[in-house]
Design a protein that fits this description.
The protein contains ten helices and seven strands. It is α/β, with parallel strands linked by helices. It has a single domain, classed as Rossmann fold (3-Layer(aba) Sandwich). The chain has a seven-stranded mixed beta sheet with strand order 3-2-1-4-5-7-6, with helices on both faces. The radius of gyration is 17 Å and the shape is globular. The structure holds S-adenosylmethionine (SAM). The site of S-adenosylmethionine (SAM) has 16 residues, from loops.
Length: 212
Amino acid sequence: MSSYKNFCDSNEIKYFKNIYSFHAFKLSQLLGESFLDFGCGRFQFSTRMAINNPNLSVTVFDTNLDELKEGIKYTGFRWFQSYKDKIKPITVVSDFNKISNKVFDTIAMNFVLLASKTPVIPVLHDLVSPNGYVGILDYDFTNSSFDEFREVFTCDEERKAISRFNSVEETFQHYSSRGLVECKNEAEEVGFKTIYSSKFDKRYFFWIGQKL
Ligand SMILES: C[S@@+](CC[C@H](N)C(=O)[O-])C[C@H]1O[C@@H](n2cnc3c(N)ncnc32)[C@H](O)[C@@H]1O
């Protein structure tokens, strides 16, 4: 097994689970009745949120149907069946018009800020209830060198991200273009108050804001 594969199969996966757990823990303290995972991918994060908070109405939204289908497959697995009767059904949405006239008490957005082709923070502001909360988890390579980036940006999902650019250098340019400071500034400009922010291990940030 290559050292790259070893890395992806063990430490990196555990590591990703840790940052998601931390974000879920922070958001769990700020829940109302409804929760949206914006750009949910395969929605493992929200499956966990639903299990941990059985009375929560969870909606997951992504424009990528293939990712949603994978997520639906995942919730069909036997381990999930035992939870199914104990939690509210998870609403899976791929059409933005189905959520655009709704508001949610808490919204999570994990690794979408840099993946989206269009600005998403103003959209989150429209989708969150007055006084509701938005939690963003994403990369922050703004103070990293290209070599540092190249050394750590190696997981399967990250390799997929690189393949969407012409080169690793171009990927670095994009991924180092914004981080916590830019997210916080943009969010405060559209009307959020920052209630929590931190950087983690030089390459991630957490930001939680409340709609004023
Ligand atoms: C890197 S993946 C992260 C998926 C998931 N949040 C996670 O942490 O595993 C980024 C996801 O954001 C979705 N996405 C990007 N821009 C979006 C947008 N403007 N609206 C909805 N989903 C978007 C993509 O389809 C993709 O599934």
